[in-house]
Amino acid sequence: TAPNIAAAIEAMSHLEVDTKPASVKTKSRDFFWYSPVLKDRLDGLVADFVVSPRNEAEVIEVLKICYEHDVPVTTRGAGTGNYGQAIPLAGGCVLHLNLMNAVKEIHPGRTIVEPGCLLKDIDAATKEHSGQEIRLFSSTWATATIGGFIAGGSGGVGGVRWGGLRDVGNIIRLRVVTMEAEPRVLEITGEELHRVSHAYGTNGIITEIEIPLAPAYDWVELFLSFKDFTEALTYCYDLVGCDGMLIKLATVFEAPIAKDYFQRVAPYVEADDVVVALMVAPHAMSGFQTFSARYDGADVIYRSDDHDWARHPGHVFEYAWNHTTLRALKVDPSITYLQVGYGTDDPISLVNKMREMFSPEVLQHVEVTRQGGRVGMGGLSLVKFSDEARLDEIVALHEAEGAMIFNPHRYTLEEGGRQSTDERQLEFKREADPKGLLNPGKMIAWDDPDWGYDQMYAYPGLRKAA
Ligand code: FAD
Fold this sequence. Notes:
One of its GO terms (molecular function) is D-lactate dehydrogenase (cytochrome) activity. Keywords: FAD, Flavoprotein, Oxidoreductase. Its EC number is 1.-.-.-. This is Putative FAD-linked oxidoreductase. By secondary structure, the chain is α+β, with helices and mostly antiparallel strands. The protein has three domains: 5-98, Uridine Diphospho-n-acetylenolpyruvylglucosamine Reductase, domain 2 (2-Layer Sandwich), CATH 3.30.43; 103-216, 2-Layer Sandwich (Uridine Diphospho-n-acetylenolpyruvylglucosamine Reductase, domain 3); 220-406, FAD-linked oxidases, C-terminal domain (Vanillyl-alcohol Oxidase, Chain A, domain 3, 3-Layer(aba) Sandwich). The chain has 17 helices and 19 strands. Strands 11, 12, 13, 14, 15, 16, 17, 18 and 19 form a nine-stranded antiparallel beta sheet that branches. The model has no long low-confidence stretch (mean pLDDT 97). Flavin-adenine dinucleotide (FAD) is lined by residues 30-31, 74-82, 85-86, 97, 115, 138-140, 144-145, 147-149, 151-156, 200-201, 205-206, 321-323, 326, 439.
């Protein structure tokens, strides 16, 4: 059924509705343009209007009205996702959660927040309340929302200690509103969390989040330089493996990433320097020094609590995770990236193998993580883009060597994952979004259960770009 946009807007006239073309356009975009492939497919797509509910009751109202008038609804936190997750492919309504940003409760070890709360604002509130902080955050901590992180992200800073968002224990409870004639409100815990976490808002709107907290520290942020890439990798791998050390971030940048792309670090490094970024708890600095003294090649060039750098480099985590790509892109617009899983068996050998095969066309940016209790590695490798065929070839060559790719050049859940449908998400969508109005085009299995993945999925409902 064709959406009746005018009737929906009319029915929402008492709510915070935005129909101004310029701001609707801005709120219809995210950071999809990191990918030349997505930029080609998704540039210029816009919603018809944006609504910002103030509370859960208004979310219910919006969903009810949109259901009645067959209007697609794409939820937006802050729109910092990289896969076009927040882009309304079929137009309709952008449900912007910016006004639902309260920290509702703080307890020992946990907090209850609204979805539109910025990650940094949760930290500020929990730190002030009782010296606690969130365990895991996206490097877009300063700008991204917790709802967007849970529905669209996967992990990030803190992953060396706490694993990924989907690991048991990293989300305690989600409150979710369904898209039906009479929307229901569900409290979701346990195995059922997988239905809506990292589902891009295709099967429910998260209106309340309960997540664990850890003691807050004034983390010491460091840059180290090494002359040898494998030594830097081994250093980080061993450091994160030290059972007595509290580390929040361990990142390795192949040369010349720091020299070429990190403006404020560049004066302190040579082109052949491999750079490591770390966050170490203050009480672990003594252990850190003991550990580092065992490595001849480790040279501390910056520590946040004691430095004489003329220009403050900002948080080191804003060089890591997908901030590395951002910094490279600003200098060289032909750079894009891949998300690689090197696993836990022998990640150092696998990273080295990829480096031998592709450097300098692909430069290694490696994040050390904890996976299933073991130290592992993931990469957000920088790729010098030539064309789509070569990019696909690089993906295939990684996979052939056992390096898993989570393709950031695709806008569907399946293609950004392991080319298979998450049955729990699909089943929940059948139940919670029977008309298929939530973030249409992002779940292939909903549109085309027989899709073969032999080519990039092209959502047939894609509204023609403006
Ligand atoms: P949005 O982009 O607004 O939304 C993300 C998805 O969630 C969309 O599909 C949206 O529809 C859905 N959604 C939002 N809110 C809700 C809700 N309440 N209910 C249901 N669905 C909802 N990601 C990481 O995981 N780790 C990183 O370290 C990381 N680093 C990044 C660095 C840079 C420089 C950039 C540009 C991006 C990075 N990202 C990273 C991606 C992104 O910033 C994060 O995932 C971020 O947490 C998303 O939050 P957001 O508020 O911007 O979400």
